[in-house]
Amino acid sequence: MSRIIKEIEVEGKPAVAVFDTGATFTYVRSPLISQAPRKKITRPAHVILGGQEIDIKELCIIEGKIEGLDFFADAVPVNDLARADGHDLDALIGAITMERWEIKLDPKSGQLDLEGLRRREFTEY
Prior knowledge:
Blueprint lengths: L3 E7 L2 E7 L7 E3 L8 E12 L2 E15 L2 E10 L4 E2 L2 E2 L2 E3 L1 H6 L3 E3 L4 E3 L1 H5 L6
Parallel strand pairs: 2-9, 3-6
Antiparallel strand pairs: 1-2, 1-5, 3-9, 4-5, 5-6, 7-8, 10-11
């Protein structure tokens, strides 16, 4: 098994992202999303991300592409993300984003199932 690390696009810029079902939120390095709309959080949430403690004080609405397929998500801006498998990370795509777009991981092959992103049709209850 391996981590799934892919080059994606965030706000029109190339980014190296790890897809992590163990993370709730999506995190993106602040320089990549400096122009993205931001919303202040009234009561911050405290998380430990890669060994560093952070308070989520704001969220950004971002647009990007995964394998050429458009997506949008809310993301937590962070100053820095760790390295993973020799890659400097720009983004960590968390479970909420993957669930919204029905992105499934196959760690054995290192591939993403992007059928939900391709379809772009959802049934809401």
